[in-house]
Amino acid sequence: MVVPKTRSLIVFVVLLLVFNAATLCHGGVTSRFVRKLAKGDDMPLDSDVFRVPPGYNAPQQVHITQGDLEGKAMLVSWVTMDEPGSSQVLYWIDGSDQKRSAHGKITKYKFYNYTSGFIHHCTIRRLKPNTKYHYEVGIGHTVRSFWFMAPPEVGPDVPYTFGLIGDLGQSYDSNSTLTHYDLNPTKGQTVLFVGDLSYADQYPNNDNVRWDTWGRFVERSVAYQPWIWTAGNHELDFVPELGETKPFKPYSNRYHTPYKASNSTSPFFYSVKRGPAHIIVLASYSAYGKYTPQYKWLEDELPKVDRTQTPWLIILMHAPWYNSFNYHYMEGETMRVMYEPWFVKYKVDLVFAGHVHAYERTERISNIAYNVVNGICTPVNDSSAPIYITIGDGGNLEGLATNMTEPQPKYSAFRESSFGHATLDIKNRTHAYYAWHRNQDGYAVEADNLWIFNRYWNPIDESTAASA
Ligand SMILES: [Fe+2]
């Protein structure tokens, strides 16, 4: 016979199990990970990660990005400080002694009381797929050498691994994020960067010296693998009171994109194909309403995506559309209203954004039924919709977004206020393995992970709720 006290304990345990099951069925997880909440400090100017390379006029801030539509070209950029020097890049296939050369262009800009160094941009073309290339810059004075892997030929079943970093900045936490990315046993081959690079605009007069330090800080990664750039609000550098009224001046002089290859008219929105992925970069801070260049470009671009060639359709932007933290409320809303029906129609697999300094992953949801009169304003599960991932947790000096809306909305599958990065390991046309890493853990530890099923080839429900 069960005594009353034991019976009430059993009832309590059963209720607890039911409650837990209900929680799991609703999917959303707010991580209970405990962390320090202090704001991050930027690394001082004399930090070793900002060291100027030795030698007269030595190239610094070397960075590469894709130079064409399909990954057969690489755009190599660097800065020389003492004199213009050569804009030539020498490059050769690993193991070969046949060196080729390409010639680039030099640009330079002034920002209030700052004058930039000589910024070189040089595209090297006709790269062989899946081939290791060495390259040299600084010809004539101080030569520096680097290498990269040309990507595989664009195709539906070539495995390829992307890294995901956003809102990086140059704090001690930023350094930790970059180190975790470098040492992650899942080796990222290209970084999809979702905007907010240097945070130089946080300094008096938007001190552009902090653009230079950032360029030297990230060189250890971006000189060896391309980073695909998205412009964030910290790239605007719009300061009328200093006479600086041309938005994106430092960013657009320093970080070029291959926008013309995808018929875009602006460096801030464009697309590239890389391995099995078609990546569309959108501009949260350029006009996107109906009839604007960005609207018309995206309207033309989406029907061109050939899922038999590039099964994975990935979109990058800075301001997230779905965000359950109490920061940047509704900032992505007007773009969502304009473009979300297209994302569902064209079965976008994943949307990555930054801006909110935290991590969040949604279920597959859409909110396209809503108009201002019908009141249907709650996002619903939608198997044709993308998963939205906010990865603005690179570690900049502004600190973490810690305040969340409660209760956690059903569409939010996982959220946490920690710095980190993610990897997207595409296996073939149907499967990709996604993992998010927080900086407090060991390099191999995955704090959130998910098998992602392709929307075009394998549109089964992979949501947290489905697997629970
Ligand atoms: Fe931002």
UniProtKB/TrEMBL annotation:
Organism: Lithospermum erythrorhizon (Purple gromwell)
Catalysis: reaction(s): a phosphate monoester + H2O = an alcohol + phosphate
Subunit structure: Homodimer; disulfide-linked.
Enzyme Commission identifier(s): 3.1.3.2
Domain Purple acid phosphatase C-terminal: 385-442
Protein family according to the UniProt entry: Belongs to the metallophosphoesterase superfamily. Purple acid phosphatase family.
Domain Calcineurin-like phosphoesterase: from-to ranges: 161-359
Cofactor(s) required, per the database record: Mn(2+); Fe cation; Zn(2+); Cu(2+)
Single GO MF descriptor: acid phosphatase activity
Entry's transmembrane regions: none
Pfam family, one: Pur_ac_phosph_N
Protein name: Purple acid phosphatase
